[in-house]
Automatic annotation (TrEMBL):
Residues 52-138 form the Methyltransferase type domain. This is Methyltransferase domain-containing protein. Keywords: Methyltransferase, Transferase. PANTHER family: METHYLTRANSFERASE, METHYLTRANSFERASE TYPE 11 DOMAIN-CONTAINING PROTEIN. InterPro entries: 23S_rRNA_MeTrnsfrase_RlmA, Methyltransf_11, SAM-dependent_MTases_sf. One of its GO terms (molecular function) is S-adenosylmethionine-dependent methyltransferase activity. The keyword Glycoprotein does not apply. One of its GO terms (biological process) is methylation. The keyword Transferase applies.
Length: 251
């Protein structure tokens, strides 16, 4: 294994924009949910005339679909991802707009037959219902409770509120309270592994909400402890949680 400083420097220099994870190839793994979200979304996009993808990242998941609706829009709140999504999806006729969590979506009522999101920051069910046309569908894959906490706990101690957050059943109740009918609600717990400290540094730079304010100097003791474990032959194992939500606005 390469020296600690070299691995950390490489991870600090690597691009973290968008939702690509190529840096982790051969250095980390994560099981995929059994339902195959990208395939499900592609199937839905091929059947509707209008769709909106929320928190699209760099537009990678939408771009996997071979056929897009006649009217296709996407939102993103982080400037580097917004630029990347426009570069990726603009040539395919997708309107990519800036939208911040907690603010109304910049679309008229009943604008879309399908609203989708992979790993939304915080689903705003009232806004999702508002922009869905009657009979329209929401399809989302969300991050679940205590996702990657075995890694996060090497750096910070999550609060009780953080441990209780992103509960799939609570999210389903919130969707119903906003006037949506929840059909599918599937959950999965998935194994993650990391084989070098550079992979850890990179993922904490990309998923900035895992360890707020992450810094390789401030958090150096935790990183060096992980590095020592990995050099002794132990693999760092954590678990991600995901849930699939399918809901409709009543006709």
């Amino acid at each position: 294994m390469r020296p600690y400083d070299e691995l950390v420097a490489e991870a600090l220099a690597a691009d973290v924009d968008g939702w690509g994870f190529g840096f982790l190839d051969g250095r980390a793994t994560e099981e995929r949910p059994p339902w195959g979200y990208a395939r499900l979304l592609a199937d839905e996009l091929g059947r509707v005339d209008s769709a909106l993808d929320l928190d699209t990242g760099g537009g990678e998941v939408v771009d996997e679909a071979a056929v897009l609706p006649r009217r296709m829009s996407a939102t993103e709140g982080w400037a580097p991802n917004l630029a990347r999504a426009r570069d990726r999806l603009g040539p395919r006729g997708v309107e990519v707009v800036h939208a911040e969590p907690g603010r109304p979506l910049p679309f008229a009522d009943a604008s879309f037959a399908l609203v989708s999101s992979r790993h939304p920051v915080a689903p705003d069910w009232a806004e999702i219902r508002r922009v869905l046309e009657p009979g329209g569908t929401y399809l989302g894959q969300h991050v679940g409770r205590e996702s990657a906490f075995e890694l996060i706990e090497r750096f910070v101690t999550p609060t009780p509120a953080q441990r209780a957050g992103r509960d799939p059943h609570r999210e389903a109740d919130d969707a119903r309270a906003a006037g949506l009918e929840v059909g599918d609600l599937l959950t999965a717990r998935l194994r993650m592994t990391f084989t070098d400290v550079g992979a850890v540094v990179w993922i904490l730079r990309k998923c900035v909400w895992w360890v707020p304010g992450f810094d390789v100097v401030r958090d150096g003791a935790a990183l060096r402890a992980i590095d020592a474990d990995l050099r002794s032959g132990r693999t760092l194992v954590a678990h991600s949680t995901r849930h699939l939500v399918r809901a409709t606005r009543p006709a």
